[in-house]
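Worked example 3 (structure in, sequence out).
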């Protein structure tokens, strides 16, 4: 997977490139990241990337041409670097108008050749660049950021940790909230040492060594937590036929009579 980023702030991406699970995976060449600064694709002495909005209004708008030239340069670079497997990748604008990014999107990104992310700044991006060059818009949710970079990093993190070999314990990504082994339910609570913390212990089943009981307790915790916090996810899992009879019996037992 190769991620190209068009951004005025390439330094921000050292976080995802150099640190933690994603940093280790990058070191192991499980994925590649390349940043492209639209300022390097300007043609005036001031290296201008923004201008005032037609029609007036506050703030500045990112100019189309430096962004377009950056995307052209990325396509050339991708064609040269992957001469044999030039799988086309989407040009994605991070925007609150986009499709909601979820675990299924993260999975698709992780199983693809990557994406070209456009990180907007200022009040927005010239619409003509979006119309001509952008294939998709992806959103993290209904809020406004000062730029697309932080959203891009969240999506990159969600995808990279799914790459084979990215996690130390091959298991643990399959155990996360929203992942398949949990039927799309929230994960159960976690505990570690010390066994007693300010006089509060650890659920005794976790100390019992009985792995069947531990698995059943965790499943029941997931069901109860999800029913309380995200009943929509319970309905989704039921509609997908992911509940056993034992799951349904336990959910029934949680309902007030
Ligand atoms: C901002 C905006 C606000 C209301 C309606 C539409 C909008 N589009 C944009 C937009 O594309 N903004 C650019 C990127 C430039 C300003 C900062 N940007 C941005 C991206 N702010 N917030 C996001 C974002 C991205 C993904 N998920 C949530 C928010």
């Amino acid at each position: 997977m190769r991620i190209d980023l068009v951004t005025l702030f390439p330094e921000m991406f050292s976080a995802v490139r150099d640190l933690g699970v994603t940093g280790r995976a990058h070191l192991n060449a499980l994925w590649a990241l390349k940043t492209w600064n639209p300022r390097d694709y300007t043609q005036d002495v001031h290296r201008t990337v923004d201008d005032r909005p037609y029609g007036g209004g506050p703030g500045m708008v990112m100019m189309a041409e430096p962004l377009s030239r950056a995307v052209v340069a990325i396509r050339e670079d991708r064609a040269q670097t992957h001469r044999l497997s030039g799988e086309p990748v989407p040009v994605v604008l991070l925007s609150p108008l986009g499709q909601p990014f979820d675990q299924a999107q993260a999975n698709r990104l992780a199983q693809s050749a990557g994406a070209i992310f456009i990180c907007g700044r200022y009040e927005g991006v010239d619409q003509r660049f979006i119309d001509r060059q952008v294939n998709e818009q992806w959103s993290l949710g209904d809020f406004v950021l000062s730029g697309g970079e932080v959203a891009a990093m969240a999506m990159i993190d969600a995808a990279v940790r799914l790459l084979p070999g990215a996690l130390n314990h091959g298991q643990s990504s399959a155990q996360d909230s929203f992942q398949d082994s949990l039927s799309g339910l929230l994960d159960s609570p976690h505990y570690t040492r010390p066994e007693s913390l300010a006089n509060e212990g650890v659920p005794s089943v976790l100390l019992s060594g009985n792995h069947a009981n531990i698995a059943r307790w965790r499943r029941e915790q997931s069901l109860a937590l999800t029913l309380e916090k995200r009943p929509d996810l319970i309905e989704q899992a039921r509609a997908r036929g992911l509940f056993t009879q034992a799951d349904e019996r336990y959910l029934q037992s949680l309902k007030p009579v």
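Notes: The chain has a mean pLDDT of 95. The pocket of 9WO is lined by residues 94-97, 120-121, 124-125, 139-141, 143-145, 147-148, 151 (CB under 6 Å).
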